């Protein structure tokens, strides 16, 4: 929209002699916006080709080892199969729990990357992880001191840590082909 | 009272001066010079060290954040995108990757990162996102950019 407006203004300003152009509100620059002529059909064909290629590669299991950027406990982690990563802070799942990480922001294979906006289409990718350990971090000393003010405080803290192993990252659905009803897989009826 | 040797048993009956000092000496064991053997010097340096350790935990987070920005900037410059334009374009495209994961991608997944810069460039072109003033890199020498005449 803004681009189109600017284009109109730019052509308007140029079609008049200079003094008139100067009278116009100089809200937009006179530099025409760069544009390209897009053939909608051609464009569609191109991206359909790309999507088909990705789907074919997944169907033939030639996508290689996948990696994913998942959102967990307010943090983002880049993981691949077999990784162990740490979730810090209070987090309910206990040791032995098998969970699926649903907030997938990005998945990458050998020849393609699926970028989520902000999340990859639900049900397309399955990232499964197991909680392997729940521990506390080493003791951290919180020590404050002010010189010549008789002020000194010491506290000790240990942060809860949960280790997760990523068991599986798989593309189960079809790219750009969401199911009509989503979100049912996480509900209990 | 737990004691593991006769020496410790003897110590445990008197004032707690020995135990109080031993705590500090343990922490100063790896220091050099008198600050490892003289109590008055040891406690000074142990306190300093503990304060540094406390403050350092916050500093480490800041340092890492700066490192991520550096890495993303380096990755962006390879593909001729300004860092600020890159971040702004991604957020306008609803791609909510944070600095940490972007830096990871810039380091280890060059093709993925290139795809992201492509998206950003397209979006920047469409919406007219320009780099902030005074932050202009005029020329970045890269491999292949300096040609023989």
UniProtKB/TrEMBL annotation, chain A:
InterPro entries: bL21-like (IPR028909), bL21-like_sf (IPR036164), Ribosomal_bL21 (IPR001787). Keywords: Ribonucleoprotein, Ribosomal protein. One of its GO terms (molecular function) is RNA binding. GO terms for cellular component: mitochondrial large ribosomal subunit. One of its GO terms (biological process) is translation. Pfam families: Ribosomal_L21p. It comes from the Eukaryota. The keyword Ribosomal protein applies. Belongs to the bacterial ribosomal protein bL21 family. This is Large ribosomal subunit protein bL21m. It comes from Zophobas morio.
UniProtKB/TrEMBL annotation, chain B:
Keywords: Ribonucleoprotein, Ribosomal protein. GO terms for cellular component: ribonucleoprotein complex; ribosome. Pfam families: Ribosomal_L20. GO terms for biological process: translation. One of its GO terms (molecular function) is structural constituent of ribosome. InterPro entries: Ribosomal_bL20, Ribosomal_protein_bL20_C. Belongs to the bacterial ribosomal protein bL20 family. PANTHER family: 39S RIBOSOMAL PROTEIN L20 (PTHR10986). This is Large ribosomal subunit protein bL20m. It comes from Zophobas morio.
């Amino acid at each position: 929209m803004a681009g189109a407006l600017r284009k109109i203004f730019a052509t308007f300003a140029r079609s008049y002699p200079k003094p008139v152009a100067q009278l116009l509100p100089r809200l937009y620059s006179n530099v025409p916006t760069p544009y390209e002529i897009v053939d909608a059909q051609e464009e569609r064909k191109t991206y359909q080709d790309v999507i088909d290629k990705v789907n074919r590669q997944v169907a033939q299991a030639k996508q290689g080892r996948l990696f994913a950027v998942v959102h967990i406990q307010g943090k983002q982690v880049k993981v691949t199969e077999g990784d162990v990563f740490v979730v810090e802070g209070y987090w309910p799942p206990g040791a032995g729990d098998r969970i699926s990480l649903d907030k997938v922001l990005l998945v990458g294979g050998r020849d393609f990357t699926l970028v989520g906006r902000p999340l990859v289409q639900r049900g397309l990718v399955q990232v499964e992880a197991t909680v392997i350990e729940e521990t506390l971090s080493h003791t951290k000393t919180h020590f404050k001191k002010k010189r010549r003010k008789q002020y000194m405080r010491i506290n000790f803290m240990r942060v809860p840590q949960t280790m997760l192993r990523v068991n599986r990252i798989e593309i189960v659905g079809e790219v750009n082909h969401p199911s009509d009803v989503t979100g049912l897989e996480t509900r209990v009826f | 009272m737990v004691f593991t040797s006769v020496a410790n048993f003897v110590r445990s009956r008197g004032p707690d001066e020995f135990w109080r000092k031993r705590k500090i000496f343990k922490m100063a064991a790896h220091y050099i010079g008198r600050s490892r053997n003289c109590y008055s010097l040891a406690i000074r340096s142990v306190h300093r060290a503990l304060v540094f350790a406390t403050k350092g935990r916050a500093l480490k987070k800041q340092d890492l954040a700066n490192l991520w920005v550096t890495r993303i900037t380096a990755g962006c410059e390879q593909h001729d995108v300004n860092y600020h334009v890159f971040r702004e374009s991604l957020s306008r495209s609803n791609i909510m990757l944070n600095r940490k994961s972007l830096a990871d991608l810039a380091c280890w997944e060059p093709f993925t990162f290139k795809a992201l810069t492509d998206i950003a460039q397209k979006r920047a072109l469409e919406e007219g996102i320009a780099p902030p003033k005074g932050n202009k890199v005029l020329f970045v020498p890269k491999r292949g950019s300096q040609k023989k005449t």
